[in-house]
Design brief:
Shape: globular
Number of helices: 8
Distance between the termini: 28 Å
Mean pLDDT: 95
Structural class: alpha/beta
Helix content: 40-55%
Number of strands: 7
Order of helices and strands: EHEHEHEHEHEHHHE
């Protein structure tokens, strides 16, 4: 399918690896020029070089932490005029309700709620002026089905979801859509870390820990970054102009819900 976005320009946050990289790759394959962001410059430059070589698109890199004002300024300076925004950030650390204090919540909000909002606030006016734009926020399955040990993430990402619900409907008339993708477990560094932790806690091999987690997913496996990227690219395409303020699960059926 021709996504109809050749020649567009996208900012993809946290795109040196994992789900963000999957989104950047698929957008590049569709002919979209990129501004790629991540905190670590080495992995970022390697990913950007690979995308340039494979897809022949223009790629600008910005090594910065978008959860900070300085990081946001650096990314936005390279992103004026973008047509597509994909927000993404790693989740805050796990724990229990009794572990977290105000500072913990502020850090989570900065990374997983306030940073995406700041980027949207800065870039939406330009999209609206052109009469076309796409925003995709990578949130989490925990917004739909909260995970007790990820209470910081549950809270911050749910706040972002609420913001998008109202904002998406205010900008849709200008040809701009905002939607959220809610990933379950994908074959990324995060999944490898979870499997290693379960292996150590239970005294079993990493492969056994992985098989246990597979058993909790109706699809019987982890998702891939390529599958996730393809879903993101569709939401960024010309064909998704009537999808407004939606929350789309990509979890292999792990969330047991009718709606």
């Amino acid at each position: 399918m021709d996504l109809g976005i050749t020649g567009k320009k996208a900012l993809v946050c946290a795109s040196s690896k994992g789900l963000g990289l999957g989104c950047a790759e698929t957008l590049a394959e569709a002919g979209v020029d990129l501004v790629m962001n991540a905190r670590g410059s080495e992995a970022l430059e390697a990913a950007a070089a690979d995308i340039r070589a494979r897809f022949g698109v223009d790629v600008v890199t910005v090594a910065a932490d978008v959860s900070t004002p300085d990081g946001q300024d650096a990314v936005l300076a390279a992103s004026q005029g973008v047509d597509i925004l994909v927000t993404n950030a790693g989740g805050p650390p796990p724990g229990m309700w009794s572990d977290w204090d105000r500072d913990d919540f502020i850090k989570a909000l900065d990374a997983n709620m306030l940073a995406p909002i700041a980027l949207m606030k800065a870039l939406l006016p330009g999209m609206m002026e052109k009469g076309w734009g796409r925003v995709v926020n990578i949130t989490s399955v925990s917004v739909k089905s909260p995970i007790a040990v990820l209470g910081l993430s549950n809270s911050a990402r749910a706040g972002l979801t609420g913001y998008v619900a109202g904002t998406a409907r205010q900008v849709a008339g200008s040809g701009v859509t905002i939607n959220n993708l809610q990933p379950g477990i994908h074959a990324t560094d995060r999944a490898a870390s979870l499997d290693a932790g379960a292996s150590k806690a239970q005294g079993i091999s990493v492969e056994e820990a992985r098989k246990q987690r597979f058993a909790s997913i109706p699809a019987g496996r982890y998702g891939t970054r390529q599958e996730f990227g393809a879903a993101c690219a569709f939401l960024c395409s010309q064909h998704a102009g009537f999808m407004v303020g939606q929350n789309i699960l990509l979890d292999g059926g792990a969330t047991n819900a009718t709606m």
